[in-house]
């Protein structure tokens, strides 16, 4: 490890690594291995004090600062930055009486799920429990219970955040109301969140899982889903995905190497009610395979069955104000079974319900007015890799006639500052920019969803 004489760097308890140091490549690696991060330094932070020291060093020496826990959102090489790696800051504490969880910056949802489950509680995690809690939440956070309980950001009660001056600040609605409003939805544009406390919900089990249909049922399933999904109560959430499954021996034989349609469903009511709600979609076509049952909440990954192994990917998302038949036809023309698309997954997700309602403590989360979300992802491997970026962007372009007025920050994919800024309505965007410029006038923080300077 390189020896540094700088006082701030010398005070950091975790490793401080230059590109030539052993362990640098492992420290900067993220879930999306298509992006090879190349910061000038990486700081393996162990505490809020370490983060604050790294920010002070960067500001004093003219570097920008980036932060990474799991690297699921890594879309940029971060050249020349000081990268704060928070993976060592993984503490999680649950208060069952208060129904809250307190986490450090590097915690993942699986830790919170497992800590909350013995108390009959659950967090508002996303579709994959290996995602980092803080980055997901500060971008809004839409998961399997969002239609019932809203965005994850709506349940945050307080933060500790290191701002551009290198000061760690406790932030809640009473102490720093503007900053508290902005960080919930503004991601890492205003500082580095090192601790966060948020509410848990009294959910111990759910009825749900997935139904897999064959390729020749794709049009029937998607057209049925677009009319069925909006009829569901808030206690139910659903998405549907067109998947090109790899010929992996670890996959169940009915899915291996096939193009399939994956209907996802999660219901917080009784199994009997869940069966009744799901029946119209089961009747659309014979299923290749079904994994639907009453399950403990700790098994929530069974709904989306997202990959858990790091891989090289390129993605793109779009929030939709409506999903008429023409939109489904446009999507199928781009990614249906006869389209020859190189994409691994194209998804439609139902929004609405509590997602659309303003929380008791308003925040800067974008996309509340969207009715659906579209999302495309391709694995950058093999001969088709070069075609994937254009194919992913093509899905968003095909669905753009039905775009909502706002977007979903966590689902954008690679985006410049102007594209990011268009994800909010003008009033929210103007307020967010004013607060960001007040707390970070020099644009110190480098993020995958940058705000205009």
Count of individual domains: 3
- Structural class based on helices, strands and sheet pairing: alpha+beta
CATH 2nd-level architecture of the largest domain: 3-Layer(aba) Sandwich
Helix content range: 25-40%
User: How do the SSEs run, as a string of H and E?
Assistant: HEHEHEEEEHHHEEHEEHEEHEHEHEEHHH
Cofactor: FAD
GO molecular function: FAD binding; oxidoreductase activity
Keywords: FAD, Flavoprotein, Oxidoreductase
Pfam families: FAD_binding_4
Describe the fold and architecture.
This protein folds into 3 domains: about 5-85, Uridine Diphospho-n-acetylenolpyruvylglucosamine Reductase, domain 2; about 90-200 and about 425-440, Uridine Diphospho-n-acetylenolpyruvylglucosamine Reductase, domain 3, CATH 3.30.465.10; about 205-410, Vanillyl-alcohol Oxidase, Chain A, domain 3. It has 14 helices and 16 strands. Helix 7 (about 175-185) packs across helix 14 and helix 8 (about 220-230) runs antiparallel to helix 11 (about 325-335). Strand 5 and strand 6 form a beta hairpin. The protein is globular, with a radius of gyration of 22 Å. Helix content is about 25%, strand content about 20%. The strands form 3 sheets. The protein has a 7-stranded antiparallel beta sheet with strand order 13-10-12-11-15-16-14. The protein has a 5-stranded antiparallel beta sheet with strand order 5-6-9-7-8. It has a 4-stranded mixed beta sheet with strand order 1-2-4-3. This is FAD-linked oxidase. It comes from Pseudonocardia sulfidoxydans NBRC 16205. Its cofactor is FAD. InterPro entries: FAD-bd_PCMH, FAD-bd_PCMH-like_sf, FAD-bd_PCMH_sub1, FAD-bd_PCMH_sub2, FAD-linked_Oxidoreductase, Oxid_FAD_bind_N, Oxy_OxRdtase_FAD_BS.
């Amino acid at each position: 490890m390189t020896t540094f004489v700088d006082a701030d760097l010398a005070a950091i308890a975790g490793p401080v690594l230059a590109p030539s140091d052993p362990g640098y490549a492992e420290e900067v690696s993220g879930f999306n291995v298509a992006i090879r991060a190349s910061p000038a330094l990486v700081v393996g932070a162990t505490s809020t004090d370490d983060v604050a020291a790294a920010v002070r060093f960067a500001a004093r020496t003219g570097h920008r600062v980036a932060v990474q826990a799991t690297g699921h959102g890594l879309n940029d090489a971060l050249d020349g930055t000081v990268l704060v790696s928070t993976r060592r800051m993984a503490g999680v504490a649950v208060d069952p009486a208060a129904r809250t969880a307190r986490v450090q910056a590097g915690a993942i949802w699986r830790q919170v799920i497992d800590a909350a489950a013995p108390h009959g509680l659950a967090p508002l995690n996303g579709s994959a429990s290996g995602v980092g809690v803080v980055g997901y939440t500060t971008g809004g956070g839409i998961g399997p219970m969002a239609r019932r309980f809203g965005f994850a950001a709506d349940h945050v009660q307080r933060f500790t955040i290191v701002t551009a001056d290198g000061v760690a600040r406790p932030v809640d609605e009473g102490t720093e109301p503007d900053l508290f409003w902005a960080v919930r939805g503004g991601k890492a544009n205003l500082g580095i969140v090192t601790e966060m406390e948020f509410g848990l919900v009294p959910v111990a089990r759910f009825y749900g899982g997935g139904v897999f249909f064959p390729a020749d049922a794709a049009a029937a399933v998607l057209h049925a889903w677009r009319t069925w999904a909006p009829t569901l109560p808030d206690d139910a959430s659903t998405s549907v995905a067109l998947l090109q499954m790899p010929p992996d021996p670890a996959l169940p034989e009915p899915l291996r190497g096939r193009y399939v349609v994956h209907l996802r469903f999660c219901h917080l009511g009784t199994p009997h009610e869940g069966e009744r709600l799901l029946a119209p979609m089961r009747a659309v076509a014979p299923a290749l395979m079904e994994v639907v049952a009453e399950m403990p909440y700790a098994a929530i990954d069974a709904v989306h069955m997202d990959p858990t192994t790091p891989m090289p990917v390129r993605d793109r998302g779009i929030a939709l104000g409506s999903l008429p038949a023409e939109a489904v036809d446009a999507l199928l023309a781009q990614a249906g079974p006869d389209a020859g698309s190189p994409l691994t997954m194209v998804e439609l997700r139902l929004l609405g319900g509590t997602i659309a309602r303003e929380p008791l403590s308003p925040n800067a989360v974008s996309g509340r007015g969207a009715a659906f979300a579209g999302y495309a992802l391709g694995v950058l491997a093999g001969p088709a890799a070069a075609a994937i970026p254009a194919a992913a962007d093509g899905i968003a372009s095909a669905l753009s006639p039905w775009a909502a007025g706002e977007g979903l920050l966590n689902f954008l994919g690679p985006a410049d500052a102007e594209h990011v800024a268009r994800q909010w309505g003008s009033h929210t965007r103007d307020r967010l920019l004013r607060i960001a410029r007040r707390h970070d006038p020099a644009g110190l923080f480098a993020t995958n969803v940058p705000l205009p300077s």
